[in-house]
Design brief:
alpha+beta, Immunoglobulin-like, 5-stranded mixed β-sheet, 1 helix, about 15% helix, globular, binds copper (II) ion
Length: about 140
C-alpha cells in the first residue's frame, strides 16, 4: 500500500509537469511549475513572477489546491508593487493572501497556502490593480 501511494504521487507530479510543458509551448503567460511532494503528502510549488513596466509577466498562475506556494517576485520597476490573491476580481476581503509592498528594483519571496477549493481566483498588485492583475487558478489535485 505504501509503495502504491508513493508511486501514484510520483506519477501525478510527472503528469502535472507534462501538462505544463505542453501549455508552455502555447503561450508565454502560462506558469512554469516545479511541484514537489513532501513526506507528509503536502504539495509545494515555486513560481517566478516579474513586475516590469507596470505589468506582470504572467496573466495566469496555476497551483495545486492546498499547495504551499512560493512566489519568487522580481520587481524590476523603480516603484513599489505587491502581490495579492483574492477570491475574485472584486477583491473583496478577506483576501486569500495579501503580500507586502516591495520597493523596486528588488526581489522578494512571498509564501502562502493555496485555497483548498479548486477554481479560478484572482491576483493583482494592490497598488496598481487595474494594470497589474490576472487569474490565479487552483487546480484539483491529481488523484
Ligand atoms: Cu504595482
Amino acid at each position: 500500500m505504501k509503495m502504491n501511494s508513493i508511486f501514484s504521487k510520483t506519477l501525478a507530479a510527472v503528469t502535472i509537469t507534462g501538462l505544463l510543458l505542453v501549455s508552455n509551448a502555447c503561450t508565454k503567460t502560462s506558469t512554469t511549475l516545479a511541484t514537489t511532494t513532501s513526506a507528509s503528502g503536502g504539495t509545494s510549488v515555486s513560481i517566478d513572477l516579474v513586475a516590469q513596466n507596470m505589468t506582470f509577466d504572467k496573466s495566469s498562475i496555476s497551483v495545486p489546491a492546498g499547495a504551499d506556494v512560493t512566489i519568487n517576485f522580481n520587481n524590476k520597476d523603480a516603484l513599489p508593487h505587491t502581490f495579492s490573491v483574492y477570491n475574485n476580481s472584486s477583491a473583496t476581503l478577506p483576501a486569500v493572501f495579501q503580500g507586502k509592498a516591495v520597493n523596486g528594483p528588488a526581489t522578494f519571496t512571498y509564501t502562502f497556502r493555496a485555497p483548498t477549493t479548486p477554481g479560478t481566483y484572482f491576483f493583482r498588485c494592490d497598488i496598481h490593480p487595474a494594470a497589474m492583475n490576472g487569474s490565479f487558478i487552483v487546480q484539483q489535485p491529481a488523484q
